[in-house]
Predict the structure.
Amino acid sequence: MTREILIVLSILVGAVVLFISNRVRIDLIGLLVLGSLAVSGVITPSDSLAGFSNPAVITVWAVLILSGGLARSGIASKLGKLVLQLAGQSEIKLLLIIMLTSGFLSSFMNSIGVASLFLPVVLNIARRTDRPPSRFLIPLAFSCLLGGLNTLIGTPSNILVSEALGNAGLVPFQMFDFAPLGSSLLIAGTIYMVFVGRHLLPQKDITKDLDSGYPGVSEYYDFQERLAFVHLPNPSHLNGKTLQESRLGTALGLNVVMIVRDRETIHAPNPDFLLQAGDRLLVQGHLDRLTEIDDQDHLLLEQEPLPVKKIYSSQVQLAETTIPPGGSIIGMTLRQAAFRHVYKVIVLAIRRNDKFFHTDLEEIVLQEGDTLLVKGHQSDIQHLQENEEFILNQRGAYPDYQLDDHLIMVRIPADSLLAGSSLVNSRLGDAFGLSVQGIIREDKTELMPDPNEILQVGDVLIVKGKQEDLSTIRGLQNLIIETQFHPDLSELETDETGLIEAVLSPHSRLADHEIRELDFRARYGLTILAIWRGGRAYRSHLRDMQIKMGDAFLLFGPRRNLRIFGTEPDFLVLSEEALPAPRTAKIPLALLIMALVLFSAILNILPIAIATVVGVALMILTGVLRMDEAYQFIEWKAVFLIAGMLPLGTALEETGAAQLISDNLLSLIGNASPFLLVTTLFFFTSLASQIMPNPAVAVLLAPIALNAASESGLSPYPLMMTIAVASSAVFLSPIGHPANLLVMGPGGYRFSDYFKAGLPLTILTWVVIIFLIPLLWPY
């Protein structure tokens, strides 16, 4: 084994580990692979960057834009109405037409795009026929995957496998070379889902009757137990405070969805709405926290004055540091930067020009030139001074910050809920904006308390905050829960307000962000009432949750905001009424342009990459798409992943690593028949695609299959076709393909539902391949 082979295999193993761990973005993995190959000298810098100009990469992003053009024209909506008319009330007919129609469209459009287009259509069909969407959504996702196997442009894997053949000096697959096998798989898969697969699926409907009273939502989200009226007594410490200042959400995890004041009802109040004594608030969430803090003083204010010198000493110092241009934390909040954990100091205040910020510092987005007043041990302040990310100004007491006005001392009395909990679990900072600067216990003072420090009865906390923050706590303690009224979810629907369900768009940039970071109510004017994830509903403390692909969101707010939300590119609204109006007048143009692209590629008038790029230009010139929409439809993660992984495929071939792997594979199989080789490649590729991106699997296994064919004296075409099909046969889990993940929330599915329905389909796909490939592509 040469040095070059060892390096390439090490990079390959490292990439696979990163893919499986799911700790690093897939596009970043592609760039790391590209950089590692260039730095190690295995391939030249120009070869390492060649992926970005590779015809396969260009074809992939161009096809995504063409799919977007067909989507914006409203073709899917038209077909959905046609499906409903043709199928009537028969579940079998509905399933047949949904799968065959979406499969056909996936032959020419991106499968994720087709699934996104058909999702609201299928939900609408399910509601009108009074059937659970869970009977249709996994079949929809699977048919989109199977339909992509019909043409060269159906999936990125098809394009990449064909490109690998061309690079090896062989005739690449043409546009419809995939059709005989792909259409057979689509028909076989449809028959399986109609007669067997649908009986393996759950019967859940978390979106039932969203437009007429919401009984299904109430049942599946268990809202009857989570809706209640609370009353602000007169007098109340919350009188005159805004909803945001009341901290009902941050402290208690409650959503205020409606306020009744005298004879006026305010639906979906905004964060700046001023509360008044006597208001009745319809809240949603766990009421346990409110019951726990009811009528009990958990913090007692100490009357002793607290000068700023109490929070620092010879060992614990204050310092002022400025964020310079290009700082890595610019555009992040302190929470996102994990500032306390990374730099071991506490931020007391932020100065921006002549303005000082003292409260809710964790939520402030940092800017270039911001000055942070920090407190920390002398050694940690020194490390901060040596860090190029900051400019340390000076050390001192900093009277300009007027810290004396923001320091108070509070004592933990007996029977306080805080006794026995750690500082971090007390949520004093997150819930009430109180930052603990020190703990006085038995005449000993700890000025840099550990977040995991356990609070005890009698502890005196040195807190940065205001006395009015303590009054907010008392205001929450005095809220009265009304037990005689039992509100219903249907009360939220009026002419002005309503409910919709949405999922993350496949192109969304918001995955893995905390809801608190989005400032959802302020940004969209809507409230997230619940999140459906992994077969269960989450209804409380949603702001602390990270958004995941596959989540379904139940949203409440003014109907005008719901309609505007339907245009948000990061979300897909599951109601046709809230979706942006399609450009139906452009349907003939969109179809004509797509036909020209296909015919020019089929007749070899233009290379497929050039044909698709010209098609994109025509889509934009004719107004089928706007340029900004075209950029939104590109899956940049996939583009960077493929461009980064293609050089690894080149390195596997040029260094002999691919031949080494194929030799070991053949020696393991022995002198077995081509049947065993195809079977081994199919199941290995299919299993790898469950945990790795499909294009990456195709790029890595294509050179291995080519070498295996050469060594065994077989035609490369049946092996390459096997890899193309198997890399898209990802039916065993929702994480195997974005189309599977997209339907998980709206269908109320669990991981096991995919495995139960997908395992027989995977085996069926293998059976069809074993029988048809020798007939279509002789060994």
Notes: DSSP finds 33 helices and 20 strands in the chain.
